[in-house]
Specification:
Layout lengths: L2 H19 L14 H9 L2 E5 L12 H8 L6 H10 L3 H6 L2 H40 L8 H7 L5 H10 L9 H4 L6 H57 L1 E7 L5 E7 L2
Parallel strand pairs: 1-3
Antiparallel strand pairs: 2-3
Helix pairs in contact: 4-10, 6-10
Length: 266
């Protein structure tokens, strides 16, 4: 094997191994294949590989990537995104730039609040109607009465029937005072109509409470999603910056040789 073949194999190995070293995190500021022997080979053979790993800051200082992550205004703070969405669902997603998710959470919030006010208003309206209905057709006074009282007057035609039933069941503590809790329905049909009004009012009230639970859940889910969206956004930005930090340059020199330079910033 002559010297010419050995030199060709040497250049081939350098072209394979030296670019791989550019991706390693080396402790010193750079790696360069620029020795006189390389120059001699370059003059004799037309292609020479050259790798530069550039570093613009001392090792004791944070890397440019880390500085851009914390100082670059394009990066989104997870804490801000979380707080914005916790206060107003969708605000954190809008801050990150995901307008589709922002609209989804915001309109869900509007829908839940509309449902709450609708059910709550309907419940109060039916409750007021049943109070007036009970006073008109049963002589019952609704003021300062517990909720169980309206359940009982919807199940018994009058207070005497109710008290007799509780005494037979040995539940004397449930017996009502006739002076304070008196009622007597005009007919069983009136009592049944009142009971349907009470059930409608209670059902709407329960749905209003369910809407409040949905509102709380929407705030929490939106806040968590905003943190995730900010994380994904920052990761994409870091990846773009990392790709921009690498550069491959091919140069033709007047001496008659070519250089291939791969630069990577840290």
């Amino acid at each position: 094997m002559n010297i010419k073949r050995i030199s060709r194999y040497t250049i081939a190995v350098l072209l394979i191994l030296i670019p791989a070293a550019a991706f390693a995190e080396l402790p010193h500021s750079g790696v360069s294949v620029d020795s006189p022997e390389d120059l001699r080979l370059a003059l004799k053979y037309p292609v020479v590989a050259k790798i530069n790993i550039a570093s613009q800051v001392p090792e004791s200082m944070p890397s440019p990537m880390m500085q851009q992550t914390s100082d670059d205004p394009r990066f989104k703070a997870k804490g801000k995104a979380f707080l914005y969405s916790l206060l107003l669902p969708g605000a954190g997603e809008y801050y990150v730039g995901n307008k589709t998710m922002a609209k989804a959470f915001f309109f869900t919030e509007l829908f839940l609040w509309a449902g709450f006010f609708s059910f709550d208003s309907y419940s109060n309206w039916k409750r007021d109607d049943m109070y007036v209905y009970a006073a008109t057709h049963a002589g019952a006074q609704a003021q300062d009465k517990p909720a169980q009282y309206f359940v009982d007057i919807g199940n018994y035609d009058n207070i005497h029937e109710y008290n007799d039933a509780k005494q037979r069941q040995r539940e004397f503590y449930k017996v009502y005072s006739e002076e304070e809790y008196y009622w007597s329905w005009d007919s069983p049909e009136k009592r049944e109509e009142f009971e349907q009004m009470r059930i409608s009012s209670d059902r709407a009230h329960n749905r209003a409470i369910f809407a409040i639970g949905g509102i709380i859940a929407n705030h929490l889910v939106s806040a968590i999603d905003a943190v995730w969206q900010s994380y994904r956004y920052n990761k994409r930005l870091e990846k773009e910056q990392e790709q921009q930090s690498m550069r491959l340059r091919f140069d033709a020199h007047p001496a008659g040789y070519y250089s291939l330079t791969l630069e990577k910033r840290f």
